[in-house]
Amino acid sequence: MTASTVGGQLAEELRGVKERSGLSLAALAARTPYSKSSWERYLNGKKPAPRQAVEALCALTGTPPGRLLALWELADAEWSGRARPVSAPKAPDEPAEAEPERLAAAPSAPAARAGVRRWAVAAAVAGVVAAGLAGTAFLGAGTARPGTEPGDGRPRAVTEPPVRNPGCRADGCEGKNPVAMGCGGAGMITTLATHTASGGRRLELRHAALCRTLWVRTTGLRPGDRVELSLSTGRTQQVTATGGRDTGQYLATPMAAGDSGAGTRICLEVPGSRPECFTG
């Protein structure tokens, strides 16, 4: 595929993210579920990149994923031949399903989660594709949060299935990003406990049985907030909200190897306040 196509432009954008990060193909393969040869094909446009690969690259490099995922939606439509004019946005007919682990702006309401993908892509990618792709139909795509959107009923051109053979398990996942390693996909996660802390901050203890790991997903943190997960085995992981982007999105701790939430402790430390802790 060439840069004159949406798929080619996506490959070019992904290649730029990789080059700016300084990560080698070998480093990408070591830190994601995708091989070195797969990354080479995705970044050079020889093979359509799965959505989860785009998410993994964004997660590893700290790149805001919304624009690239919106561009992926257009490329996916191009690959499958689904690109066609859309006259008006439509509300979704189906209820939202249980969501996978995703990193980006948190939703304001369940209906917004389900519907935003139908209409937000035009604004998200207009600046990227306007010059060479004026005739390409703008299909719906969300910038809400990266991750597979299960149950939307649409065929996918990217035939590579969702990751069910993640890039790590148990001790091999310790300290790694659940999205980048393919441990946070749809149908792979169980929320073991949900806690609401001061100021409406939300803390969710998440478990991926296939990866044999635990982590905490947070919502509503403020700059300087720190969340620490402690397991009964003595393992700990933590994350700190460092800026505005962290406060407007889901923010997750790295993974800790574990098969059970029993005896876990989650502590929120707000600057100038005593730690607020929850069990399990």
List keywords for this structure.
alpha+beta; single chain; 434 Repressor (Amino-terminal Domain); four-stranded antiparallel β-sheet; five-stranded antiparallel β-sheet; 280 residues
Structural class: alpha+beta
Mean pLDDT: 75
**Ends: how far apart?**
49 Å
Computed over alpha carbons, the radius of gyration is 19 Å
Strand content: 15-25%
The helix content is: 25-40%
Give a short synopsis of this structure.
With 280 residues, this protein is α+β, with helices and mostly antiparallel strands.
Overview of this protein structure:
The chain has 280 residues and is α+β, with helices and mostly antiparallel strands. It has two domains: 6-129, lambda repressor-like DNA-binding domains (434 Repressor (Amino-terminal Domain), Orthogonal Bundle); 170-279, no CATH class. The chain is 27% helix and 16% strand. The protein has eight helices and nine strands. It has helices at residues 6-21, 25-31, 36-43, 51-61, 66-80, 110-115, 121-129, 244-247; strands spanning 189-196, 202-208, 213-219, 226-230, 236-240, 251-252, 256-257, 265-269, 276-279. The strands form two sheets. Strands 1, 2, 3, 6 and 7 form a five-stranded antiparallel sheet that branches. The chain has a four-stranded antiparallel sheet with strand order 5-4-8-9, with no helix packed on it. Strand 2 and strand 3 (213-219) form a beta hairpin. It is globular and about 55 Å long. The N and C termini lie far apart (49 Å). Mean pLDDT is 75; it is low at 84-98 and 103-163.
